[in-house]
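If I may wish for something, please walk me through the protein I am sending here so I can picture the backbone:
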Amino acid sequence: MKLRCTAAALALLVLAVPALAQHEHGAKPAATPAATPAAPAATSAAPAGGPSPAEMEAWQKSMTPGPQHEALAKLAGDWTFTNTMWMAPGQPPTESTGTMHAETTMGGRYVVEDWKGEMMGQPFEGHGTNGYNNVSKQYENTWMDNMGTGIMYSTGGCDAAGVCTYKGESWDPMSGKKATLRSVITWTDPNTFKMEMYGPAPDGKEAKMMEIVAKRKS
């Protein structure tokens, strides 16, 4: 099976970006998210048949945006990107360019992103929804695009050095089986990030499929 660089390969582009923002320093301020609706305060006594104070407190904590959500908001704005893809190990890469627009939604709890460009000589559109789950302690992402009919779900996080890794599964149209994709993202300066994506090669080993460099528009 050839190393495939379809929309499945690009799927981790969006999902890995937001977690990176928590390690971004000195980025240009993005649009301030709408004020976060206040969560109901936990009551000292539960109404008859209602949730207990402990249940109310747990729910309130799960729904209240925190530092990770503030970090997600830094991705709001407009970006340009250059995409380098390897169709198979050892083959010359192909390059394309595009743009991304992101906005916060639901009181800053999520960031939605719309990507436009080209892939394999065809117009490309992708849409991602990104968030941080206070319960699972993971960044989560859903992704869909015009190069397929599936919705991809992935999770990830960042280490102390600021390197962020996401993993997800995507259906391979040739084999009809799922393939695991991994992306590694680093910021090269406050307004530029690089994403490297890896997937299965013909020998079953992991190989680099894609590299995307995105820059914030001035």
